[in-house]
Amino acid sequence: MTYIVASLVERGASGVSRSSHEAFRHGADLVEVRLDHMALRKVGAEALSEVREAVRGPAVATLRSSAEGGRSRLSGAAREKALRAVLGAGFEYVDLELGTDARLLGELRRRKHRPAVIASSHLRAPAATKEVEKALARACRAGDFGKVAMPCEDAGQAIMLASLGMRRSAAGDRFALIGMGDQGQLTRVCARQMGSSMVYCSLEGRPAAPGQLDLPTQASLEREGRLVLGLLGHPVIHSVSKPMQEAALRSAGLTGVYLNLDVPPAALTGDVLDTLRRLGLSGLNVTVPHKEKVRAMCDELDPEAESAGAVNTVVFGRKKVYGKNTDVIGFITAIEQKTEIGPDTEALIVGAGGAARAAAVGLGRAGAHVTVAARDRAKGERVAAELGIEAVTTDSLRRAGRRFDIIVNCTPAGTKGVGGTVPVPPGMFKKGVLYFDMVYNPPVTRAMKAAASRKARTANGLEMLVGQGAASFRSWTGVEPDLGVMRSAARRALR
Hints:
The protein is of the alpha/beta class. Helix content is 39%, strand content 20%. The protein contains 20 helices and 20 strands. Helix 10 (241-251) packs across helix 19. The two termini are 42 Å apart.
């Protein structure tokens, strides 16, 4: 069982009374009283008794030191005296720090009658697996429950924690293993699946630690039938898939959450998808630069993923990982809203990654003559050979002066936070040409402005995003999403 623990950051007993009542009403199993946040003149028996009486149910008492990320500046004998008063105040659980409170932890191990002890360790920076496992083992030996929290700079580190948690749970350990920050939220969303005995959450949007989910969200994730989805890429901060897909979930009446999983290329190892599958995720969207690598990690592929050589949608089965490509249908649906495509259509694709492959497949099926241009000549020629299309270099485009009816940017150039120059020679933007930029954040890129100034028609990748996202949603849920809801949510996120 995983206990839902609501962290209370109140200044006095009256606030604790009100907040604890609300926490238990919304599904908390325990509350954590953060004594280090309270305006106590003295952490003594009288003050602690008042606080404990104010709590409307079972509670954890925590006096987090500043050395471990809290607000208490008590140290040495003064801290030990305060904690001894905490131990006698009637709390069901007490949090003691593995480093700061080692002597008291050793003493309590020999006592029969005492509160249950959570031996905690808060790492200051991301650590390697062996270091985290060592800290967790020490914490589990020192207390009734071990707790290790680590800041996560990317989701690869959170996935490592989750994998470690599943191993230690299988060994019978009782623990809380927490990834701090937005990229650590996987460990909170999937706390039960990774074997954590406790998961901490916030009340009224007042988190006690970075990355805590609010109590209603955390409680809802414990229900049967909840969906956990995510976006796998690097970087992902620019994406609006999260608000778009979560709006679709709400509109469909489904309980779930969509996580931004920023996994650097070096961290995308062969066991990442298997770990996410075992954690109970329903599926993923995949974005740059992982579409081709993820394809090789899937057990089965749909025809579009086979043709494009890239996967943008993962569906997790009980034992298998299924790879799909919804970019193809999303792209061709979006571009056919802007222009007609036939045998006389000359289409240029700039880029040679997964998105470029999907665009080439879609345009080829619609009957267009497709040319791919890439800075990396070898990569462009490899894509062209695999798809049966023409390959040129971007430098040759500047010299040749060829005319195209459709030009599609499939590179990240122009993306918010990425930048880059206009990926197409401006001289190619002729009147009547459709310039389709797969970038959607910002809604109007520098290249789109350059194209419009030369009377070319322009479109960004928002409709493609909505189209491919809707197809992914259907694959994960079996439910038809509301396209209007998804489109509106994406547009709001871009403002």
